[in-house]
Amino acid sequence: xxxxxxxxxxxxxxxxxxxxxxxxxxxxxxxxxxxxxxxxxxxxxxxxxxxxxxxxxxxxxxxxxxxxxxxxxxxxxxxxxxxxxxxxxxxxxxxxxxxxxxxxxxxxxxxxxxxxxxxxxxxxxxxxxxxxxxxxxxxxxxxxxxxxxxxxxxxxxxxxxxxxxxxxxxxxxxxxxxxxxxxxxxxxxxxxxxxxxxxxxxxxxxxxxxxxxxxxxxxxxxxxxxxxxxxxxxxxxxxxxxxxxxxxxxxxxxxxxxxxxxxxxxxxxxxxxxxxxxxxxxxxxxxxxxxxxxxxxxxxxxxxxxxxxxxxxxxxxxxxxxxxxxxxxxxxxxxxxxxxxxxxxxxxxxxxxxxxxxxxxxxxxxx
Length: 367
Ligand code: UD1
Known about the structure:
Number of strands: 13
Bound molecules: uridine-diphosphate-N-acetylglucosamine
């Protein structure tokens, strides 16, 4: 069996790494190749992840770069079709909900190549999020769907997806976390920044609805100012957010906040170490909600909805419906005063999801 694995943006790399490892170890899988669409192209957003996650260089690199989502997807589709014609894999595997996920699924399904979606069934219910559209499209057309949490099974059943396509296997991103946690613990990032375990709040923020407007950016600055009254704040700022801080003339104010350690995007190992030792994480990311649930670190997520409800029901995640600095301050102080949820680790988040997927693929699609 020849598998072609697709990656496009940062959150894909830690999901493909354990799958590629499991595929290579499986005697019935003869080839596991990687195609990178190039949506994330910076050394810090892409290359460092290949090195740290022990991934080989991609076999194919489409180099689509940034641009509108339509531009990205259209370019990916044209270039991907040429490669599929040449490569003819037995399986195309996509993960998550980025532009590459939907664009490559459409091309592969149209060419009659069995297409597998890992991290299927998640729904925020908010169709203004580009990721939600990518999830709905991919799940509607893929041939096999691998699900990380119970809510995914429920959504797919409601959408009329037949049971025999759907498998609840746990979470490949947690496979990476478990595999690399020990190695990450040896990183010296805390000493380099000058913070101590549990003495800082870790922050990331990049969703267009939070960071594309001046008001959201100003609220983020005020939230950081309030937070630094209690703890150091370590902000691993995404390129979208720093570009916008500059655009609205706010970067200098941000940079000068006392007690704030402003960093660029972090490597996988450094960020894992930072998460593992944080007192609290403030974010609007998808995956960080899950990683903090596994690590049992409190997480405040700046979103109206989450497509990952298990992180609220069982985990350590709280949703903050808006960026109102006063509401955030009250919730943050409550958590720092010891009123965070304890949380438990969701079912099957045990480091073995990739092996389960490899076995199921061989059983169902192998001849
Ligand atoms: C993408 C994903 C999102 C994921 C996020 C994680 C989609 C729809 N969105 O959003 O789900 O949570 O990645 O990072 O696929 N840029 C750089 N260097 C890079 C990559 C991007 O400077 O290596 C800049 C781009 O030029 C652009 C901005 O960052 O100005 C946003 O990048 P884009 O790829 O459009 O989406 P993300 O917001 O990163």
